[in-house]
Specification:
311 residues, alpha/beta, eight-stranded mixed sheet, 12 strands, rod-shaped
């Protein structure tokens, strides 16, 4: 049975006349009458009582009518969903975020911009470290990941640069350099450096150590933090100092002050990763919006990037 037979059936039932139904459907009356008879023959039932001035539903026809409407509505919803997915406006995105990435103001702004144009897309988010996020991409349990490059298996992923976030140095309140707005790394060479394990973000980890070396000093490694954002509470507890992305200034941890780092200052690089050849419309649209917002954000002044930050 063709789905159009159900449409003919419902239209004739609504109009109560094959002639008026034919006009509604944009076809001639004889072919429509023939199609209705063919449907009745296929079903083995009579759907309409033919009368002089039109047709009325039989008891069987009245019973089948709501079911026919439901099938047509399902077809309509199927087409709407398919068309929405083709435009990248319907579906589900599983987004992975590397440590401290949700604190970067441009990320929630980009997500909101995507939701404004694709409100029917369900978005779920999970924060983890770069190696775990890349593994989740390989296992298809994550669709898009905002990571701190490099990635452990670049051949199987498509990775695009997003931005290079400036860093600041976090000092415990009351530190001898608390009143210094700009600090050189050699000024804290004797302070224990709180840093996260390299395997959680080798790119940013190495950038921090390289900046110390370029400043002519070797850092005194201190307490390890379980994640990037976890360095700030350890600084507040007096375990040492830490170099962190500027977005962590938004963590209002008591007992910590944030200061601009004099060059050479490391940068916290972010990239977006998806599976290679994963070019579904919904993923492509999200990545495009994300990259556009990040390019605009990098052109802003520090005060515009972090309007509420104190550093």
């Amino acid at each position: 049975m063709d789905i159009r037979h159900l449409r003919y059936f419902v239209t004739v039932g609504d109009k109560g006349s094959i002639t008026r139904a034919a006009e509604e459907l944009g076809m001639e009356q004889p072919p429509l009458s023939q199609q209705i008879r063919q449907l009745e023959q296929k079903l083995g039932v009579q759907l309409f009582e033919r009368q002089t001035r039109g047709v009325t539903l039989t008891e069987i026809g009245a019973t089948l009518m709501p079911r026919a409407r439901a099938i047509l509505e399902l077809q309509h919803q199927f087409m709407l969903t398919a068309e929405g997915m083709a435009r990248g406006e319907v579906g589900h995105i599983r987004l992975g975020l590397a440590g401290a990435v949700p604190l970067l103001p441009v990320i929630p702004l980009a997500i909101r911009a995507f939701r404004d144009i694709a409100p029917d897309v369900t978005l779920s988010m999970e924060e983890s470290n770069t190696p775990a996020l890349c593994a989740a991409l390989h296992e298809t349990s994550t669709d898009i990941a905002i990571i701190r490059p490099p990635v452990p298996d670049p051949a199987r992923l498509s990775v695009s640069h997003l931005l290079d976030e400036p860093t600041v140095i976090a000092l415990p309140r009351g530190h001898r350099l608390t009143n210094e707005p700009v600090i050189r790394l050699d000024m804290v060479a004797d302070e224990p450096l709180i840093i996260f394990p390299r395997e959680l973000g080798p790119g940013f980890h190495d950038a921090i150590l390289s900046a110390y070396q370029m400043a002519g000093v070797t850092p005194k490694l201190g307490q390890q933090a379980p994640q990037i954002a976890g360095t700030v509470p350890l600084v507040a507890a007096g375990f040492g100092v830490s170099v962190v992305p500027r977005s962590l200034c938004q963590i209002h941890a008591g007992g910590v002050t944030f200061h601009t780092i004099s060059d050479p200052a490391p940068r916290a690089t972010l990239a977006v990763a998806i599976r290679a050849r994963q070019n579904t419309p919904i993923v492509s649209k999200f990545v495009k919006i994300l990259r556009t917002h990040c390019r605009k954000w990098e052109k802003l002044s520090p005060e515009e990037q972090f309007p509420a930050a104190e550093y």
